[in-house]
Amino acid sequence: MLPDLETLLIVQDRDLRILALRKDIANMPRMIEVAKTRLNGDQAAVAKAKEAFQANEVLVKRLELDIQTRRNTLQRLRTQQFETKKNEEYQALGHEVERYLGDIGRLEDEELVFMEKSEQLKAALTAAEAGLRRTQELVDAELKQLEERRRNNEAQIAELESERRTFTAKVEPTLLAIYDRLVKAKQGSALVALSAGQCKGCHMKVTTSTILKAKTDQEITHCENCGRILYFDD
Ligand SMILES: [Zn+2]
């Protein structure tokens, strides 16, 4: 094999690794999005639990207000009853007092039911929040791993690029330019084996003269189908 091609094979090995690492980095925003969508379900569960708890709290508060209003009225009725001199009015006020006491009792029973429900809803909300926190921790860990992977990839790319420079310095500039163009165009291998009469880049049969040219190993041979640089390998 021509010495330049041997060197280019090493360059290509670095280039393919750099390409794979860059592809992985390019994929990361999508992976970050996927990781974050894992929170959606838990966030919705917390919002729903919070809404149910708050709606119930509103009912408890409303009942408390109703009870307080009736207690105030009750207080007023008792004062009136205490102050009246008329027996008939005293009796009537007594009935009113009874009626209000009954109302307050019923409302307090009702409030108790809602207060118990509030406790259950509060517990459900706390559980949903804990679930969200657990998922958040997992997602945070995943995001941290992705960030480490990105940094690691970049460090590897820098190292491979430095190695690449050492080898490209040894390659004839015109050939290197051709190689660079091909790598870019093919987004992969630019230098491929010619084996059993077939180009290993495009998997097409090449002509006999191309096989002979590659076999003679005197000058750079291209695949007439895909243009990749060929090295004879049989
Ligand atoms: Zn080809």
Describe this structure in words.
It is a single chain. Helix 1 packs antiparallel against helix 2 and helix 1 runs parallel beside helix 3 (173-186). Helices cover 79% and strands 6% of the residues. The chain is mainly alpha-helical and 234 residues long. The chain has a 4-stranded mixed beta sheet with strand order 2-1-4-3. It folds into 2 domains: 17-169, Helix Hairpins (Orthogonal Bundle); 172-234, no CATH class. Zinc ion (ZN) binds at residues 199, 201-202, 204, 223, 225-226, 228.
List keywords for this structure.
binds zinc ion, 4 strands, mainly alpha, 234 residues, four-stranded mixed beta sheet, 2 domains, Helix Hairpins
How are the elements arranged and paired?
Blueprint: H1 3-83, H2 87-168, H3 173-186, E1 191-195, E2 198-199, H4 208-216, E3 221-222, E4 229-232
Parallel strand pairs: 1-4
Antiparallel strand pairs: 1-2, 3-4
Bound molecules: zinc ion (ZN).
